[in-house]
Amino acid sequence: MTSTGSTRAEIVVDLGAIRHNVRRLRELVGPGVAMMTVVKADGYGHGMVEAARAARQGGADWLGVATLDEALDLRAAGDTGPVLCWLAVPGEDYALAVAAGIDVTAYTVEELDEIAACGPSARVQLKVDTGLSRGGAVRADWDDVFGHAARLEQAGRLDVTGIWSHFVASDEPDHPANDAQEAAFREAVALAEKMGMRPELRHLANSAAAVLRPSARFNLVRCGIASYGLDPAPGHTPDLGLVPAMTLRARLAMSKPISAGDGVSYGHTWVADRDTTVGLVPAGYADGIPRAASNIATVWSAGRLRPIRGRVCMDQFVIDLDGDLPPAGTEVVLFGPGDRGEPTAQDWADALDTITYEIVTRVGGRLVTTHVDEEQS
Ligand SMILES: *Cc1c(COP(=O)(O)O)cnc(C)c1O
């Protein structure tokens, strides 16, 4: 995309923060538990290749992605380490992934056959559904799927390298599904072993479970959100010293006075109750700023929090500067680590009744992403 060199609005990603967070999570889970950093969805909006590199530097043994294409993009960028992907549809080209030494996931007998057809070096992890009712083999199919996998493995047609599942509510540590799922997963592992498989990896925990549920760590944890410094279980997580890696910022396009009674932005959903000043922020819903943030979210500029006034538009929105007139070009921080008093992605998520995952993955559009690397203490 053409860039005139001025930073109208940008996503700044601190790779040092990702490296630090992965290190912290590794220390927390301790030796004997491998660390998978999940870098799907463009590294949760942080840039997949750059995030992956920082994660490897921080000690990620594995990288996790959803799609085969994401896994192949990691290889094309030069990553040669262990990678797992877990979301394919029939007819996808497993051969490319197998040739690239990527672990793929199977839910069904049919998938196992498709994968086995790609050559004897195929590395497959079996996913079991322990209650999420999303991907994975349901309990009634475990005998068939495991039996088929064991036969293919004994025939030298593939390697079963792992067995895994995914939590329903690991961010709610008291949710009854957690115990039930962990028990079901233990049964699945025992059944796989009874059928003659010795999958090297057994894994169930995402970030929240890795932090809050030591019994669910098995020998690998899959950490996404916490690797980016965001709280995996708001209200439950102890202070881990994680550092949010993403800052979203812009430069004021204009600031100006308006009078009491003046309406702001489309539909005049906000009308000034006093003479005030407003600033124009050149980023909008086409850049992933939620339109639902209209009149709700707050940004930081010229030393203070500043509320969004009126509707967020496609390319721009207006903030209340409360009498201040910072010049055009002044920095506006929509969210960041919070250390200068700016809102965090968690503040935006709370204001918008969503989760930080959605906030950081949705921003993009015309925003430029700049990677920096600050050493974290
Ligand atoms: C996205 C994802 C993760 C990472 O979850 P976080 O809550 O971000 O740590 C782990 N496992 C699977 C299967 C996922 O899809």
Automatic annotation (TrEMBL):
GO MF, any single term: alanine racemase activity
EC number: 5.1.1.1
Keywords: Isomerase, Pyridoxal phosphate
GO cellular component, one term: cytosol
Protein's UniProt keywords contain Cell inner membrane: no
Cofactor list: pyridoxal 5'-phosphate
N6-(pyridoxal phosphate)lysine, modified sites: K40
GO biological process per UniProt: D-alanine biosynthetic process; peptidoglycan biosynthetic process
Alphabetical list of Gene3D superfamilies matching this protein: Alanine racemase (3.20.20.10), Lyase, Ornithine Decarboxylase, Chain A, domain 1 (2.40.37.10)
Top-level taxon of origin: Bacteria
NCBIfam families for this protein: alr
The protein's name: Alanine racemase
The organism of origin for this protein: Nocardioides piscis
